[in-house]
């Protein structure tokens, strides 16, 4: 039974070997010259002002997490929409359509809840 896992073990060892050789080669062959420009902080071509460890408002992170959450959830609608026509031919189209509508309803309820709680306010 363990013989079934031998190819996975071999692949894992090959990957580890590749990673080790790549890191070692970059360490040996890479340039080690440090210039003044390399050690200077770079912020999109602008001279940085203040401390790099400045504090951000929690609202900024909340909006970022909400954007990622709703963005990823909306990606799940694509396979449902693509398969709707083929599922209709099989007779399961109505079930899939109701499932899509329920998913969209949950998304809108979540968005409405966040909106009412003020999670999207920037001030």
How would you portray this structure in words?
There is one protein chain. Helix content is 66%, strand content 0%. The chain has a domain at 58-123. The N and C termini lie far apart (61 Å). The protein contains four helices and no strands. The longest helix is centred in the C-terminal third of the chain and has 25 residues, at 93-117. The protein is mostly helical. The chain has helices at 6-29, 58-75, 77-90, 93-117. Helix 3 packs antiparallel against helix 4.
Topology record:
Layout: H1 6-29, H2 58-75, H3 77-90, H4 93-117
Helix pairs in contact: 3-4
Mean pLDDT: 82
Report the β-strand fraction as a percent range.
under 5%
- Number of helical regions: 4
Distance between the termini: 61 Å
Strands, count: 0
User: Could you say which structural class the secondary elements and strand pairing correspond to?
Assistant: mainly alpha
General form: flat
Main sheet overview: none
Low-confidence stretches: none
Helix and strand pattern: HHHH
Helical content band = 55-70%
Radius of gyration: 26 Å
Task: Throw out a few tags for this protein.
flat, mainly alpha, single chain, 123 residues
């Amino acid at each position: 039974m363990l013989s079934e896992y031998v190819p996975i073990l071999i692949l894992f060892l090959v990957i580890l070997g590749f990673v080790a050789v790549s890191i070692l080669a970059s360490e040996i062959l890479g340039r080690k010259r440090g210039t003044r420009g390399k050690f200077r902080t770079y912020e999109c071509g602008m001279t940085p002002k203040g401390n790099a460890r400045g504090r951000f408002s929690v609202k900024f992170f909340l909006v970022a997490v909400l954007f990622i959450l709703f963005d990823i959830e909306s990606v799940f609608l694509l396979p449902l929409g693509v398969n709707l026509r083929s599922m209709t031919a099989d007779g399961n189209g109505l079930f899939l359509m109701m499932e899509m509508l329920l998913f969209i309803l949950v998304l809108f309820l979540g968005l409405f809840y966040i909106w009412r709680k003020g999670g999207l306010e920037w001030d």
